[in-house]
Amino acid sequence: MNIIVCAKQVVDVSEMKLDSNTNKPILQGVPQKISDIDKNALEEALKIKDKNGGKITVVTIGPANAKERIKELLAMGADEGVLVISPEIYDYHVVSNLLAGAIKKIGKYDLVLCGEASIDMFSGQIGPRLAGLLNIPQITYAQSVNAEKDKITAERNLGDKAVSEESSYPVLITVTKEINEPRLPSLMQILGAANKPINEWTADSIESGLKPIVETIELKGVPMERKNIIYQDDLDESINKLVNSLAKEGVLR
Amino acid sequence: MVLVYSDDKKLTFELLKKGSELARDLGTKLTAIIIGKSDDKLANEYISYGADNVFVAETNMDKFKAEEFAGILENIVKETKIDTILIGSNKNGKELASRLAGKLNAGCVIDCINVYLKNKKLTVERIVYSGNAIAVEQFNSKPEIITIPPKVIDPLLKDDKRKGEIIKKKFDIEKSTSKILKVQEMKTGGVNVEDAEIIVSCGRGFKNKNDIKLIQDLADVLKGKTVGCSRPIAADLKWLSEDHWIGLSGHKVKPKLYIAAGISGQIQHIAGMRDSGIIVAINKDPEALIFKSADYGIVGDLYEVLPKLTNAVKEKLG
Q: Which string of DSSP letters, residue by residue, matches chain B?
């Protein structure tokens, strides 16, 4: 079984600081990592490979330094990496077309796995968008997957409902964070990953002339103006003050 | 033309308000789409909430399937000159919008919290970086596809005198090769945090599942009765069902009063409750992030604070 896993390099949002004047995030110097849920997608691919055999190729659209991150995925157990160097400005249209082009160039595939969303933008657009471009069925928000020789079933978490779906191959599946616990590679695996191939392709070699349709014109800070009245002395007195304040605010009925 | 679609009726009412503004500014018409069985009552409701027309794509499908619904919308878009497509941002809506965008090679922005025209271009805002920033995005070509979450827009007042045309067309749609085997209701506590006016929430500061009773007691005397929680309680420990989960991947809420007890205030949680009226935090760590997002806070052990607070509220309300 040939499995493609799409993985994105993102800034580590938990390490991000805000500029105290503008409230805007400071993006320079923030450590980069593979988006967490994409690692869940790879873990699921590894489980499927353990059971059914096959080959796992991870595909990343990103800057040249994403190669280091791809090595982590190879250490986890992926067989081969593909890095398409992204153009300077891009949007979901550009990235999904580059992914679709790269997947077609890789050749025969049965299963494409993605995280349900990346942890930086949290759109969840790439998976189903890519399925539309490849014109294959999609199963989103999978919280469990069972791959067999000629069909795959998945249980989708829709919050209020769990929906079981079945598909033949090829199919694209996006997974949730709860589906599994991604493995940590051993030292031997990390060393072994150095010998696994990473193909570097230019965006133009996949599809030339791709232009973004949606442009980010500004990144604004988020206003969070709160009163920040904190009571921390005598507990009974604090509670008294709090209840009186809430009554004055009109939120006690 | 501006199109509006959601499989959620209430959300469609909300989208119709924004759709009618956009249609007016663009000098065009607003069409609401119904996919499935013909439903004149629903179509007329959409008209009374602002639709100029309702297009009913009649199919015999009884369940939502993104591949098939995207196929229908793709057909509609190819037959008409469409400016903007507004889709309700629930889980079905997001995967529908994204797939449709792939099929049409169109621009698409998910979870827009603000939508307007700037220099005659459709401009939208969405929250990024776990609630730490707002990205302002602009479209350079049509059709534009956007999804809007519930509760972002207040619907127009219902006006039964509003007139509109209902157009029906039968669709034979290519079946997807994937199929639904089973739909199961998830075990829920039957709560709806998104509609609650008062929410009392618990987080990792609670040591045992049974201690959540302390939260329930406070919620009960506040007559809010709604208990929320942060990610660990619902997703990892599973002490509460996911309908209680407030945060970026859980529910987004805006009650009049939000009380967070034993919640550290990770940005993912803040993203789900930042629009609340008054925010109260209870945490034993004076440095806890949650205090930065709170109007009022008490530094103290929640096991001591909660019973006392519950009694004090009870006394105050008589």
A: -EEEE-SSHHHHHHHHHHHHHHHHHHT--EEEEEEES--HHHHHHHHHTT-SEEEEEE-S--S--HHHHHHHHHHHHHHS--SEEEEE-SHHHHHHHHHHHHHHT-EEESS-SEEEEETTEEEEEEEEGGGTEEEEEEE-SSSEEEEE-TTSSPPPPP-TT---EEEEEE---PPPSEEEEEEEEPP--S--GGG-SEEEEE-TT--SGGGGHHHHHHHHHTT--EEEE-HIIIIIS-SS-GGGBBSSSSB----SEEEEES----HHHHHHHTT-SEEEEEES-TT-GGGGG-SEEEES-HHHHHHHHHHHHHHHH-
